[in-house]
Amino acid sequence: MLAAGSLTSCDLDPDDTSKPRAVPSPDPDQEVLDAARAELAGLVHRLPATGRTASLAAVHREQLDALQGDLPATVRHRHPGRAWVARRERRAADRFERWALEAQNGDLARVLASICAGIRMQPELRESA
Amino acid sequence: MTTDRVDALQQTLAAEHAAVFVYAALGGRASALPPSPLREALDAAYAAHLERRDQLRTMIGSAGVDPVAAEPAYRLPSPLDTAAQISEEALRVERACVTTYAGLVAATTDTERRWALDALVATAVGEQAFGGTPEALPGL
What we know:
The complex is a heterodimer.
Chain A: H1 30-46, H2 54-66, H3 82-102, H4 106-121, H5 123-126
Helix pairs in contact in A: 1-2, 1-3, 2-4, 3-4
Chain B: H1 3-30, H2 37-61, H3 83-107, H4 110-126
Helix pairs in contact in B: 1-2, 1-3, 3-4
């Protein structure tokens, strides 16, 4: 859906060699984006795509895809306990809320806020509230 | 205040005007039905949108801009007699507002973004009172 790197492109003419090369400034949102992708990849890794965590795992895969993150190479097969899942999901929602407020790019903030809301909508978190 | 921010706040206020109108009408229709969780959910949603409408008016007015006025009336679907029809319309309103709040998150910073984020989360979660199902990316 978006990449933070696309937000800081330089308007340099590639054919103009008379000017000194500009060093692209670091993307101010890269750290947030990396952390958000890692958070979702960690959740996908810990939630088997079968049984009672199948739906939640699918939600996080879709969210990770929206951030153009890579799926983890492996997924655990053992189901975590319900309390662990609820605690972990709540922590993730809190983090996405914070990242949505921190992001400098509005489009990224919108996606992070949507992910936060999407996590809070899930029954695993609502049932434990 | 930037034009984008003002425009987004005004769009959100316009959505709240519509939501307040529709919920008033839905509450009237639901009053003809037996007491149910739906009526309570409609009352709660009406109160929430009324409060947000007033907050948005204040936010826009404090920037020295005239808040957009409500339309004289808004189109309602027909028929709107059964609990299922009323719930469906309420869900449509909530989803429209969620999309608007997401747009406001993108256009704002600091306290205004905090406000938009809180509204987005509360409304997305509240959709389930009207038969909404959990989504991965509400409002996108």
